[in-house]
């Protein structure tokens, strides 16, 4: 037995016989139902055989024919179940001779019946149609408590339904509904009007086993509801219920399903961990001091690199290795900072010079790069690519000139850097490709997991079994950064590089080792840029200059008279950082698309910057 909630649900939703005239848009004009004669023949099994004989006036809007919709799923009112109404044995006809094929579509908790012919859309005038069907489980059992008394005993069986729903968008007139049953009617009530109205219908009367209600007219979105009472036990009042589908319910949470999902997740994460342990962890030479090469060479045993091992300070970079390469080795990325460091390194080595232009504190401040000598065999492939791209048919270029034109060359330089560290055997494979493949796998697993979860939830309500796949995808995406793995040789060079980085990050002014005739500031500045310690390294020399220490004059930075570079060193840190910022923006700025332009300077069809298109549908 159900309480008042079920009665209210039945009033509002149970078999809401909705219909709309003419299979045209809901805002059509001229259509109306001028006569509606419906007969509900109730059966002992709780079903009803329904026949609707109606006249449909097309008015000034000819079309295919009418269509009617009926709900097949409604909320039962207990917060758990959905009540089902099976509409079947559908039959249609037109005594007036109008096309009367039945097109039935059941979806979204309703069945739609279109009457007419899809190939005939000019039916006009007033046509008569007859629709017949059977609907199961329409009868309810009413308890004493539901009638205001006490107790759960059933006191009557009841048909409580909307014989004309409130979703009609056209008016209906001359409405008669007859309810026939195998037993005597105890009581009859009907209501008509807007949804929620308690206004009684035009007329209602019953005699013996027949009940008849009438209504002169219903405006659009008005309905007609009846409640007919019969002796208890006259009908099968058992409703057809299914558990209401909810997100949590569709997941199929339970001890067994959750346990199975946990096992699947553990298996998936275990496979990810196993793969990363075998392929995603750095290795280093075993029983060898970090940074040193083993005597056995390539045949030396290796072990997983200890990331927490202490780093010994190195007072110079690994021999013969340039800052762009070491920057890529440290963070496994050939980023803009590595390319900018390479640019400075080329200047320090005499291939180009750098000169400030204008006020660097203003938006017009810039730097000019001037070729000092041609590229030669001493340049690595990535350095040669960078140098040739900077001075492509020119001897001088400003950073602003490179803006929006260098992005494609930048990608080539970065790819060459990845190729270089891979060819040198520092990584098990191209680190960029390793990250991309791992990220692609994670995205694929995540999307597949979501798809499997939805599929299992909708089909068998076991969506929880698809979640582990999606979670494993998230784990893979979260570990993308560890996908590249260094070889033992890469770890050896990394140890030296980390030691030199420690020196650049911690050296004090009194600890700088000067060599006669060597500009140590310029020599190590590109490495400080690649390692992210520019400000720290420059500040050390600013302090030395402020003390009056004689420092070698950088030959690659112009704009000052010889001997005056360190005289203005108080702003050196700012100038270097400004160069880094402008260079980074210039090297990575995307190539622009078309501008708005003007149609008055040679415009044509399709030449504007905005617009789009459209068409019929």
List the defining traits of the structure above.
617 residues, elongated, disordered C terminus, four-stranded antiparallel β-sheet, 14 helices
3D structure, described in words:
- The protein has 617 residues and is α+β, with helices and mostly antiparallel strands.
- Helix content is 32%, strand content 24%.
- The chain folds into 2 domains: 241 residues, Sandwich (Immunoglobulin-like); 254 residues, no CATH class.
- It contains 14 helices and 23 strands.
- It has a 7-stranded mixed beta sheet with strand order 7-10-3-2-13-16-15, with no helix packed on it. A 4-stranded antiparallel beta sheet has the order 1-4-9-8, with no helix packed on it. It has a 4-stranded antiparallel beta sheet with strand order 11-12-17-14, covered by helices on one side.
- A hairpin with a 5-residue loop joins strand 5 and strand 6.
- Helix 4 packs across helix 8, helix 4 runs parallel beside helix 12 and helix 13 runs antiparallel to helix 14.
- It is elongated.
- The protein starts with a helix and ends in a 29-residue tail after the last helix.
- 36% of the residues are buried.
Summary?
With 617 residues, the protein is of the alpha+beta class.
Q: Count of helical segments?
A: 14
In round numbers, the mean pLDDT is: 84
Q: What fraction of residues sit in β-strands? A: 15-25%
What structural class should be given to the helix and strand makeup? alpha+beta
Major sheet strand order: 7-10-3-2-13-16-15
The number of E-state strands comes to 23
- Assembly classification: single chain
Distance between the termini: 51 Å
| Secondary structure: helix percent | 25-40%
